[in-house]
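Lecture notes, unit on protein representations.

Consider one protein chain, 83 amino acids long.
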Amino acid sequence: MRITRFETKILDKQEKRLKGLDGLAMLLVDIDYDGKIFDMDRTVFAKDISEDGKIRMTGLTESVAVIAIDKHGNESKPLIIKK
Protein backbone atom coordinates (compact mmCIF):
# COMPACT_ATOMS: atom_id res chain seq x y z
CA MET A 1 0.00 0.00 0.00
CA ARG A 2 1.20 3.55 -0.66
CA ILE A 3 0.00 6.97 0.50
CA THR A 4 0.12 9.43 -2.37
CA ARG A 5 -1.46 12.41 -0.61
CA PHE A 6 -2.39 13.53 2.89
CA GLU A 7 -3.82 16.90 3.86
CA THR A 8 -4.63 18.36 7.26
CA LYS A 9 -5.74 21.75 8.48
CA ILE A 10 -3.51 21.75 11.56
CA LEU A 11 -0.73 24.31 11.86
CA ASP A 12 2.85 24.07 13.07
CA LYS A 13 4.45 26.43 15.64
CA GLN A 14 5.04 29.03 12.92
CA GLU A 15 1.32 28.86 12.05
CA LYS A 16 1.96 27.23 8.69
CA ARG A 17 -0.12 24.28 7.52
CA LEU A 18 1.70 20.97 7.85
CA LYS A 19 2.41 19.47 4.44
CA GLY A 20 2.64 15.93 3.20
CA LEU A 21 2.95 13.24 5.83
CA ASP A 22 4.23 15.69 8.47
CA GLY A 23 0.74 16.05 9.99
CA LEU A 24 -0.11 12.34 9.93
CA ALA A 25 -0.10 10.46 13.25
CA MET A 26 -1.42 7.06 12.22
CA LEU A 27 -3.58 4.99 9.91
CA LEU A 28 -6.25 2.57 11.04
CA VAL A 29 -6.72 -0.27 8.56
CA ASP A 30 -9.61 -2.68 8.04
CA ILE A 31 -8.06 -5.36 5.83
CA ASP A 32 -11.41 -6.93 4.87
CA TYR A 33 -13.92 -4.07 4.88
CA ASP A 34 -17.50 -5.31 4.44
CA GLY A 35 -18.84 -1.99 3.19
CA LYS A 36 -20.81 -1.29 6.37
CA ILE A 37 -18.80 -1.58 9.58
CA PHE A 38 -15.20 -0.45 9.93
CA ASP A 39 -13.43 -3.13 11.99
CA MET A 40 -9.85 -2.08 12.69
CA ASP A 41 -7.39 -4.89 12.06
CA ARG A 42 -4.11 -2.98 11.98
CA THR A 43 -2.61 0.31 13.14
CA VAL A 44 0.22 1.91 11.18
CA PHE A 45 2.07 4.71 12.94
CA ALA A 46 3.59 7.55 10.90
CA LYS A 47 7.11 6.53 11.95
CA ASP A 48 6.54 3.17 10.20
CA ILE A 49 5.71 4.76 6.84
CA SER A 50 8.63 5.29 4.45
CA GLU A 51 9.39 8.76 3.10
CA ASP A 52 7.82 7.86 -0.25
CA GLY A 53 4.58 6.80 1.49
CA LYS A 54 5.05 3.05 1.12
CA ILE A 55 3.61 0.73 3.74
CA ARG A 56 4.40 -2.97 3.78
CA MET A 57 1.37 -4.98 4.79
CA THR A 58 0.29 -8.55 4.14
CA GLY A 59 -3.14 -10.15 4.22
CA LEU A 60 -5.02 -7.39 2.39
CA THR A 61 -8.23 -8.46 0.69
CA GLU A 62 -10.05 -7.01 -2.32
CA SER A 63 -11.79 -4.42 -0.13
CA VAL A 64 -9.66 -2.46 2.34
CA ALA A 65 -10.67 0.67 4.28
CA VAL A 66 -8.28 3.16 5.85
CA ILE A 67 -8.91 5.96 8.36
CA ALA A 68 -6.18 8.59 8.67
CA ILE A 69 -5.65 10.38 11.99
CA ASP A 70 -3.66 13.61 12.14
CA LYS A 71 -1.42 14.74 15.00
CA HIS A 72 -4.32 16.56 16.69
CA GLY A 73 -6.52 13.45 16.66
CA ASN A 74 -8.80 14.47 13.79
CA GLU A 75 -10.06 11.45 11.85
CA SER A 76 -10.81 11.18 8.16
CA LYS A 77 -13.81 9.34 6.82
CA PRO A 78 -12.97 5.78 5.80
CA LEU A 79 -11.20 5.65 2.45
CA ILE A 80 -12.17 2.45 0.66
CA ILE A 81 -9.56 0.80 -1.53
CA LYS A 82 -10.62 -1.92 -3.95
CA LYS A 83 -8.29 -4.04 -6.04
